[in-house]
Amino acid sequence: QVQLVASGGGLVQAGGSLRLSCAASGRTFSSSYAMGWFRQAPGKEREFVAAISGSGGITDYADSVKGRFTLSRDNTKNTMYLHMNSLKPEDTALYYCAARPPPISRSEYEYNFWGQGTQVTVSS
To answer: Residues 101-123: pLDDT tens digits?
Structure first.
């Protein structure tokens, strides 16, 4: 089994920054697993935000966050980080982290393991 725990959400003003973390654990988790972030705003479907390969050498970002968000991971800690800068009110959502065997993917249906979500609220 794989457990994912997301943290770091909060309330921030537009233009501010936050760092989300996703800590993975469990006997079957492998550092080769791709990890990703998805978000869901009220009344909207869950959408892809960013994903990273097991080695961290490959990253992929949604157009809406490209240039503002940076994804990284520390495999010694089995933890993924999403650095969010220049936050906008439209970034307000519940952010979920997810993991899957390689390769990375933008499709939520291809992720096997999910965290509980952390709320990000950006005020204007």
So the answer is: 999 999 999 999 999 999 999 99
